[in-house]
Amino acid sequence: MSAVLKAQGLGKRYGRRWALSDCTLEIPPGRVVGLVGPNGAGKTTLLNLAVGQLAPSAGAIEVLGGRPASGPRQLAKVGFVAQDTPTYAGLSVDDHLRLGARLNPGWDGALARERIGRLGLDPSRKAGRLSGGQRAQLALTLGVAKRPELLILDEPVAALDPLARREFLSGLMEAATEHSLSVILSSHLVSDLERVCDHLIVLVDSRVRVAGDVDDLLASHHRLSGPRRDPARLPAGQEVVTASHTDRQSTLLVRSEGAIHDPAWTVGQVGLEDLVLAYMTPKTPDRPALEALR
């Protein structure tokens, strides 16, 4: 398999508004992918297209070599934990496991029961009486016990406290490693993505701004500071992502596959959060601000 998700010119329109536009992506197998962007950027739309809950308005999308939700075999390959880690308040933990077994032909009951026991969840307790973190863990258990090849999670930890988030992400990484899962995780919490993800996609204004393996992205982005300079006069191959200026100094974040040799610049490393914020920072015609990187 060359890609777990491949999109070409993918778009989704509601009336005159494009929720996702001209999305071209190729996600390699075996990655834990962080999908990040501001609210309304198109993250949920992309994930709903990937699981077949929406049909494209333009372009094409392929998941694990097939069209999303094209049949039982395709559905069995993909696990999905939607926003707010949905569970049924009136059903017990055990009811959820029985429902999972009925709906999923590849259901691993032993895995589900072992995970529920390890988490200390009472099988007879109704989901509506669980804490937010416990409901999230139950939803993750349902997704993992389906034994998918790809697990997609849409903002699963947004409403959780820091400890519950850490426990959820730890369980996710353990499951991904143990069962060789590819994972796509949508979140606006960059610090959480930094802890678990090795591939990054940044969506802004319904378009992909940057995508790639985290190590490669960090190695190819640099913070430059030095005497004030017009960014347009940088050498070819140095793409300015954002820039800010004082009367005497310029601070730039640039993408360059090669080393920066100009002795006038002080070259600094860029962290993942700085990189994400730079691509999310709106540009203005007269001053493409880099306030987040100061």
Q: What is the fold's blueprint, element by element?
A:
Blueprint: E1 5-14, E2 17-27, E3 32-36, H1 43-50, E4 58-63, H2 72-77, E5 78-81, H3 93-103, H4 109-119, H5 132-145, E6 150-154, H6 162-178, E7 182-186, H7 190-196, E8 199-204, E9 207-213, H8 214-220, E10 221-227, E11 239-245, E12 249-255, E13 266-268, H9 272-280
Parallel strand pairs: 3-7, 3-8, 5-6, 6-7
Antiparallel strand pairs: 1-2, 1-4, 8-9, 10-12, 10-13, 11-12
Helix pairs in contact: 4-5, 5-6
Question: What labels describe this entry?
Answer:
single chain; disordered C terminus; 294 residues; AAA+_ATPase; 13 strands; transport; 31% helix; alpha/beta
* Protein structure class: alpha/beta
Shape: elongated
Helix content: 25-40%
CATH topology of the largest domain: Rossmann fold
User: Going by CATH, what is the homologous superfamily of the largest domain?
Assistant: P-loop containing nucleotide triphosphate hydrolases
Radius of gyration: 21 Å
Strand order of the largest sheet: 5-6-7-3-8-9
The average pLDDT score comes to: 91
Describe the structure.
With 294 residues, the chain is α/β, with parallel strands linked by helices. It has two domains: 5-205, Rossmann fold; 220-293, no CATH class. 31% of the residues lie in helices and 28% in strands. It has nine helices and 13 strands. The chain has helices at 43-50, 72-77, 93-103, 109-119, 132-145, 162-178, 190-196, 214-220, 272-280, and strands at residues 5-14, 17-27, 32-36, 58-63, 78-81, 150-154, 182-186, 199-204, 207-213, 221-227, 239-245, 249-255, 266-268. The strands form three sheets. A six-stranded mixed beta sheet has the order 5-6-7-3-8-9, with helices on both faces. Strands 11-12-10-13 form a four-stranded antiparallel beta sheet. A three-stranded antiparallel beta sheet has the order 2-1-4, with helices on one face. Helix 4 (109-119) packs antiparallel against helix 5. The longest helix has 17 residues, at 162-178. The protein is elongated and about 65 Å long. Mean pLDDT is 91; it is low at 285-294.
